[in-house]
Structure formats: C-alpha cells, structure tokens
Write a structure and sequence with these properties.
There is one protein chain. This protein is an alpha/beta fold. Helices cover about 50% and strands about 10% of the residues. α7 (about 220-240) packs parallel to α11 and α9 packs across α13 (about 360-370). The longest helix is centred in the middle third of the chain and has 23 residues, at about 220-240.
Amino acid sequence: DPSRRGGRPCHSGPVTSFTFATAHSIAFGPGRSAELGGVVAGLGRRPFVCTGAHPTRFGRLLDDLPDGRTWPVSGEPALDDIRSGVAAARAHRADVVVGLGGGAVLDAAKLIAALSPNSGDVLDYLEVIGAGRPLAELPLPFVAVPTTAGTGSEVTSNGVVTSPEHGVKVSLRAPSMLARVAIVDPELTIGCPPAVTASSGLDALTQCLEPYVSPFANPLTDGFCAEGLRRAGRSLRRAYEAGDDLEARTDMALCSVLGGLALANAKLGAVHGLAGVIGGLTGAPHGVCCATLLVPASSATIDALRAHDANHPALRRYAEAGELLSGTAGIEVLLDWLRDTVRLLRVPTISELGVRPDAFRQIAEQAAKASSTKGNPIALSVDQLIGVLGAAARD
C-alpha cells in the first residue's frame, strides 16, 4: 500500500506483533563445511548436488557425498535449466538436495528441491508469469552451502528464476522451501575474484540497508541489519582488496546471512525492484545490478522522503546507517561512503550492463509493481524510477 509507505514505518513506534522465519539450522564459521557429509547423511541417501560451473573447486566436499549426483549451474538459472534439473533429480531418485555455490546455485537447488516431488511444470507454481499454485507436496530436504557472500539465499524461502521469453526474473516461494541446514563457511569465499566479491558484497550490504529503512522492519530485523551494516563497513573494502583476509571474509559472510534473515522478514526496496527487472532483461548477475543501483536508488528515496516529510523516521534510519558503515552519523555521510565504495570496487554503470535509455520506462513500470519494491519506505513513481535509471547510467 503506497500510502502506508508514506506514513510512519512500523519500527518507529510500539511493535505489537510480527512473524519471523528462517532456516531450521544455521552452522556458521570457518571450517564448518567439513560437516556437510554428516549433515546430508542425516537427511537422505541419494543427494542431488547443485554446484557452480566448476565443481572441482570444491572436490573435497563432493568426495564426502559418494552417492551424490552433481549438476553444474552456469549463470543465473532459467526456466529450462530448472526443468532439466528437476528431471535429473527425479532420475537420480534424489531424497535430499544440496546447493554448493553462489546465490544462483542456491536458488536453483531450492527450486529443484521444491519441484521434484510436485507434478506439473515450473510455470504452474511461479508468481507473475505462472499460475502461482501452492506446492501440494513438501519439498525434498534442502542443504545450503554458499560459496559467495551476497544473496543470503541460504536463509530465505524463495527461489528466483529467469524467464528469457518474458524478460523477467520471478520467484517461487513457500515457507517449506527454507533450508533444513545452512552451512556458512567463510573459507569457501576466499577464492572469489574481486569483481564477484564487490558485487556480492554490495548486494549483502543493500540487503541490510533496505530492510533497515523498511516499513515492515521489526526489532529482530533491526538488530540483524545494524550488525550486518557494521561488519560491511569495516570489511567490504578489505575483502575486495585482500581476498585472503579471513577476518574480512568472515564479516562479509555474516553480513550476507544477516541480510538474508532481514529481507526474508522485512522486505527490500527500490534497488532490488529495479535490479530484478534489469537482470531479467539483460542476464546481468543480480549482485552487479544491485551494486550499480544502490546509490541512485537510495538518493532518490531519500529525496522523496524529505519532500514528503522532513521528519520521516526512515530518514533517521538512513543517518544511522551512515554511522554504522563509517563511524559518523548522517545521510550525506552515508551517500558519500556508498559512492566512494562503489567507485573503489569498480562497479559498472547500467549502460555497461547493456541497458539502453529507450528501455527505462519499461523497466520502471515493471519495477514499480515488483514485490521487492513494496518494501521501500516511500513509493517512488515511474518517473522517479526512470530518474534512478538515468543516474545509474551516468555514474
């Protein structure tokens, strides 16, 4: 409800009730991935393991799953990829699904775990472009092992898939899709290239910032967001500059988990609303889309809030975020820190991602209706979203 987002967010006053959901169990810390074999053995005997395009990178973990079928995921999964994965999991008679990789791999694994026991096509269950049917059968047990620090997919209840035919990214979501176990081992992220560290890290940061200013925030998500922002502030640049800095990698892995916990329960905002549409149109990685939109979307939201109500509580939250990231409170401090970080991490513009100005209105119209956008602290008009895209094309 846009009028609700123009009013006072729920976290500014007494909170009478809220709901919180996450993975059944989270195992966090350096070296915890060594527990994967035992965790999977406790859930099933025939694991189906979704990995990145180069599964040999994590050969020792795959060796602990001797009866597993490995299924590589190259890039962001499309509808046909999920169909093929479901068919392969059924042929393997899988009874547990493992996602060992970045956010795209975890999303694919989550979708395959959900759809393998259910009849029909993936479109029968998807939002927006599909029938949106609820899952009739419980998903197979799902174990999430992220190897990047960004999406927080290991602790969320939705899987994202691209439809090239429709030019959009859409979700299948259900509480039963939450991971049975999320094993978050920062050591697995040490091999990430700088560009991946940058885009995934800025995505994790965004997923702490947007829920922090959301009208759907609650005391639990507030704490997660604040801690995530604090850790990103001290470690994102370090992780980019020195990829083998385990302390920095640990901070960013925790930032990713905290952002996932927050977004799953307090929603996101305009950055993700626009990023989802751009990713669907161009095929650009989700984290890169978020990174290039972070500053212009935040600036536009702050301007809209100031024009609506100079004392809006979300403005105070933005100022607090500046202090959490940099040590000094203030909205301009926040924006300056974000601009400097985006520059230091060499984030591309949306023009470099292949977004042309003649597509701005279409993107903005779709983003205005996206579920992610509904968490923005104030509704941005289509014209305001077009302005965000124009700034993201220049900066």
